[in-house]
Amino acid sequence: MNFTKLIDAFGIPGTYIGSEELSTGNNNQTYRLHFYDNGDMFYIMQRLNTHVFKQPRALMDNIRRVTEHIGQKLKQVGCADAHRMVLHFLLNKDGEPFVEDESGFWRAYRYVDRAYTYDIIQDSFCFYQAGRAFGEFQRHLVDFPADTLTETIPHFHDTVDRMRILHEAIENNKAGRADSVRKEIDFILAREKEAGIIVEALDSGRIPWRVTHNDTKINNVLFDSQSRAPLCVIDLDTVMPGSSLYDYGDAIRSGTNTAGEDEENISLIHFDLELFEKFTRGFLETTADSLTREETLLFPTAARIMTLELCARFLADYLDGDLYFKIKKPGHNLIRTRNQIELLRQMEAATPAMEAIIADICRQG
Length: 365
Known about the structure:
By secondary structure, the protein is of the alpha+beta class. Helices cover 45% and strands 14% of the residues. The chain contains twelve helices and ten strands. The strands form three sheets. It has a five-stranded antiparallel sheet, with helices on one face. A three-stranded antiparallel sheet has the order 6-8-9. A hairpin with a 6-residue loop joins strand 1 and strand 2.
């Protein structure tokens, strides 16, 4: 890959040494560029997948404004390591955080050194730290006007709309599979009323609209190599207006299932209450002054709703003939559906314990 024009367009200083393609990430092509300028300097160059992200300019405007806001907050408190605690995107010669040419839509940002990510949760301590990281992200943006951001993926966590799509998939039955999954359909539709709780709370004003990350997996947190402390949240392509409950609930859904969402053996799926407690503690430690009581009370509900949402999405795709999610074998989306249904069953059984844990954390301050 010849980066000469892009390097010039972004005005990257120093002598270009070389590049390597990084394998992380499912959507964008990512490269690490090496420069020498009175020492080794590294930058990340990414080509956005505009088939997935159809509004790249609006997406980058969202990211730029959010990261600049966080950067200002870090400067205000005199954070010595501020350059490593938020992504710093480079601007082109017109002051825009992207370059668009015949090869695609590109962005570049400073590489965060002495940092790493987890692909899977190694222990409860790292999940606690992830809770702190996503909580800090929320806290830094509590005064950011969420309604000024573009909803780059409309209805992304609109669970009412997700259930509507499932109803359409059942009715259309494109792949002729509906009769064979009637038990799964009945399970999900029996919980349709709960699915709309967060959407209704937002619409009624019971809970506030906030800036949300919308992809709160453990691998979207950078950790310091020496202290293991969280540095910053990365992969900001889905930053949009939403509810803090979306971020909290999806982190619990993805992080507390000890078997992972592709596990076919239902007996291996376990909702881990210790992991739930650790993430919740970290999240509340950093958001206690910014979240409303109503939001905190809805934490267990959010975990169930975000799991139900994915149940509905996997099953709708299975009924449509596997058109959206990548599958590795026949029936993969049905495996995922049943996996998330079992996780949701266990969450429902553990709800009193979840509520007690949250109450105990709140009492401790």
